[in-house]
Amino acid sequence: MKNIPISAKIGLFFTSLYFFMAIFAPWIAPYGMAEVVGDVWEPSSGKFLLGTDSIGRDLLSRMIYGGRTTIFIAVMGTILSFTTGAILGFIAAVSGGWVDQLLSRFVDLIMAIPSLIFALVVLSVMPVTIPVLILVMGLLDSTRVFRLARAVAVDIEVMDYVEAARLRGEKLAWIIFREILPNALSPLVAEMGLRFIFMVLFVSTLSFLGLGVQPPQADWGGIVKENKEGIIYGVSAALMPAVAIATLAISVNLVADWVLNRTTSLKGGRG
Amino acid sequence: MHPIVKLVAQRLALSIVLLLAASVLIFAGTMILPGDVAQSILGQSATEQSLANLREELGLNEPAVSRYFNWLGGVLQGDLGTALTNGKDIAESVSYRLKNTLFLAATAAIISVPLAIFLGLLAVRYRDRWPDKLISGVTLTSISIPEFLIGYLLMYFIGVKLGMFSSVAMINDGMTFLEKLNAIALPVMVLVLVVLAHMMRMTRAAILNVMQSAYIETAELKGLSTFNVIFKHAFPNAISPIVNVVMLNLAYLVVGVVVIEVVFVYPGMGQYLVDHVTKRDVPVVQACGIIFAAVYIGLNMIADIVSILANPRLRHPK
Q1: Which pLDDT score, from 0 to 100, does residue B39 have?
Q2: What is the ipTM score, two decimals?
Q3: Which of A97, A161, B61, B262 is deepest in the core (most CB within 10 A)?
Q4: Where along chain A do its domains lie?
Q5: Mean pLDDT rounded to a whole number for chain B
Q6: How many CB atoms lie within 10 A of CB B75?
Q7: What pTM was computed for the model?
Q8: Which of A139-153, A234-248, B53-67 has the least mean pLDDT?
């Protein structure tokens, strides 16, 4: 614990705080998620710490439940994007030849269309539910993981120990999981933090546009959408998610930086 | 053939192939998904008759391949079809909105590009001192907040609390140029903030990369001032990476515009797209999708072509 730099400690503290709130939301939130408890847009008071929202629900409770939804979707999306992207990237690097060409060109093609636009096109005919959102965002984002995983694996693939495993007659799965994965882990873990943040921003944007999490389910993007009319009257309820998203994003970034530095110095790489 | 001409021609051909493939993907994305498209557009409560009518209207009874070629043929001739929701010609509605979107994006670009390059140079000049640290701090914050929230933050603090500029960016043809500029001041500010961060960071990295070269050391040892070294020796060599950065960010701007238009109720392509995604108006979504993809692919292509042209090693073939 002593060797953790102060910035990483702050990052770890806030990241765990948000995850803690997400997991234990029903016990922490003072009121229910969709419970109407007060007047419209009440200012903050002892009873409602952050005030109330556009139809009189407690904003703090909405924020806590909203964090739960947003973080859950972002975590699931990141897991999906990492497993798909990394496995396909490793397969492309190890197999080479036409498999590599096919996968790489397909990824180039998907990346030639902006993710948000492509997500909107797909969501125009799909039912907007949480599993669909996770699937669409995770698969679109896996293209970026694919590129990184492939680039890292191409460097590892030429090492003697991979050659040795090949000569021993090991199968593709062994080479990927036992030879390449352990050596490619540190850049992938650092990237995971960035992808997670990107997911948080992505799902918030979609919900804000009305194409993400559907009401009455709370999520950070949706809270902005529900309270945006208040801005013109000087009600700051819609700005709360900005604070939450920004602190979460910055703290995860700080942790990711630290992980990257720590793992590279372990390997005697650049400090 | 001269190698530059050959490379540029190859890059052009690649873009056309990419665009065609992207059109297939956009078409497939809305048409060949599991389930019945007509059903998911109209919802569970639709009657058999209305489903059959919609299938007829969308041409769903024909095979997907022939529908794709019909659609593509129309798009190539400038016929984007008609909207399901109001029966209007899509090309007509799009051309007016595209003009507005380009006006917004271009204004943001005119401000952000020179500013980003200047600040990037400043960050290099005062590397690791306070201007550099301030710039990277602001950058980190602004990439940690989604665009639409930056929009509301500015609307709240500048538009409402300070009472400057209008909080909604409604524009119409009757307004003078200055009135229009006043109306779009806030959305332009948001877009500038969003792309400025990326552009500055990447410009800084590109110039620092050039600054490590041997000829820069020579220039420094000749006793030139730091500003002379940066402007006369580093900058010309950094043009190609910087143009690349600028183009990538303009492409990013085109997408960022979608969300910002919704925030400020601006009558552009982005709002048009989002509205019709909510209404499940597939022909409009496809048309907007292909236009956004075309602009994005085009800007990426220009970035690559400029870096081919700016590479001095290609100018004198062996």
Answers
A1: 67
A2: 0.81
A3: B262
A4: 24-270
A5: 79
A6: 19
A7: 0.84
A8: B53-67
Probe site for chain B from A18, A70, A209 (most B CB atoms < 10 A): A209
CB-closest option in A120, A197, A231 to B273: A120
Smallest Cα distance from B316 to chain A, Å: 31
- Whole-angstrom distance, CA of residue A65 vs CA of residue A241: 12
In 3D space, the residue among B43, B279, B88 whose CA is nearest the CA of residue A124 turns out to be: B279
d(CA A58, CA A38): 7
* A:B CB pairs within 8 Å: 146
Instruction: Tell me: pLDDT of A27 over 70.
Output: yes
**Amino acid identity, position A220:** W
**Per CATH, the architecture of A24-270 is what?**
Orthogonal Bundle (1.10)
In B, residues 222-261, which contact A (CB 8 Å cutoff)? 251, 254-255, 258-259
Q: Which residues contact B218 (CB under 8 A, 6 or more apart)?
A: none
| Contacts of residue B216, Cβ cutoff 8 Å, sequence gap at least 6 | B210, B229, B233, B234
Give the one of B18, B152, B161 whose C-beta lies nearest to A228's C-beta.
B152
Sign of torsion, CA B110 B111 B114 B117?
A: negative
Alpha helices in A2-114 (DSSP H): 6-23, 25-28, 59-95, 97-111
- Calculate the average pLDDT of chain A: 82
Joined together, the tokens standing for residue B217 give 């050391």
Give me the residue label for tokens 């799009």.
Answer: B94
Res B312: pLDDT: 65
Which residues, listed in sequence order, are joined to residue A57 by a DSSP beta bridge? A36
The pLDDT of residue A267: 46
Task: Give the torsion sign (CA, B165, B171, B176, B177).
Answer: positive
Question: Measured between alpha carbons, how far is A258 from A70 in angstroms, rounded to an integer?
Answer: 24
CB contact under 8 A, B274 and A123: no
Instruction: Tell me the chain A residues in contact with residue B282 when contact means C-beta distances shorter than 8 Å.
Output: 124-125
Under an 8 A CB cutoff, do A125 and B144 touch?
no
pLDDT in tens, A200-254: 989 988 988 888 888 778 888 888 888 877 777 777 777 888 888 888 888 888 8
Instruction: Report residue B120: phi and psi, to 5°.
Output: -60, -45
**Token duo for residue B226:** 């730091």
